[in-house]
Amino acid sequence: MSARPAGNYGIDAPGVPWGWGGCAVVFAIAAIVVSVLGSALWLPIYFTVLAVIAAIGTFFYLRSTLVGKFEVWRGVIAALRLRGDEEALDLGCGHASVSVLLAEQLPTGHVTGIDLWRSVDQSRNSVQAAQRNARANDVDARITFDTGDMTSLPYADASFDLVTASLAIHNIRSAQARRTAVLEAVRVLRPGGRLAIVDIEKVREYDATVREAGLTVAENRGLGWRMWWTGPWFPTRLLIATKPEQ
Ligand SMILES: C[S@@+](CC[C@H](N)C(=O)[O-])C[C@H]1O[C@@H](n2cnc3c(N)ncnc32)[C@H](O)[C@@H]1O
């Protein structure tokens, strides 16, 4: 079985693979041109090496966004050992990649996905695209999609057993607003509820915020090559924290 559910999930930050792929083509052309012009041997070798690095980076990026993200999240969700009746909230759900994987594991539960549907963060992003993916996987009855900002969640305190955020919080520019988003996630969690954040940067910042809010950090670790965004210099981390029972 493929890790990727049925449907179309777009490309995360589509400008990045276009940039890296474009560089691969430009460097390859430069290598050909300088060798045809009979330049010193090191110059075509130099451009060829750059072209290969850019092509490998493009490959890793596309693999991460199209396949790796789903492989990793399937493992993260399995390790959460859900009962199956939880209420989950997926922050910055985009095309519902994580919402769909969660709903598959919650036969008597429910998933709410919230997003601003920004195409700069994920190509062809829209609530309709998310709904199509939920339908394609026959989990649409267990997912609700809302349009909203994760820094100001339209939900009551202690409404969810699980809050997830996949590659979403780093898209918020200011550190203060990212902190607000994490505190909002904590606010809507029930006592004993869990927060699972997967992100490419700022995880140390989220870790400090959840500890400050009184949560216990169960995991803060790298997720390996499956979520290398061009290469090992751009890895992804997982943070899992639990809200205390009261
Ligand atoms: C890189 S995409 C990841 C989407 C999805 N979580 C996934 O892993 O496929 C980041 C998402 O965060 C959303 N987003 C960015 N800022 C947001 C905010 N302040 N509130 C809600 N969603 C936001 C974007 O619209 C986009 O859908």
Structure characteristics:
7 strands, single chain, 19% strand, 246 residues, 7-stranded mixed beta sheet, Rossmann fold, binds S-adenosylmethionine, alpha/beta
Folded structure, characterized:
This protein is of the alpha/beta class and 246 residues long. The chain has 2 domains: 70 residues; 164 residues, 3-Layer(aba) Sandwich (Rossmann fold), CATH 3.40.50. Helices cover 42% and strands 19% of the residues. It is built from 6 helices and 7 strands; from the N terminus they run H-H-E-H-E-H-E-E-H-E-H-E-E. It has a 7-stranded mixed sheet, with helices on both faces. Helix 5 links the parallel strand 4 and strand 5. Helix 2 packs parallel to helix 3. The mean pLDDT is 97. Bound molecules: S-adenosylmethionine. The site of S-adenosylmethionine (SAM) has 25 residues, from helix 3 and strand 2.
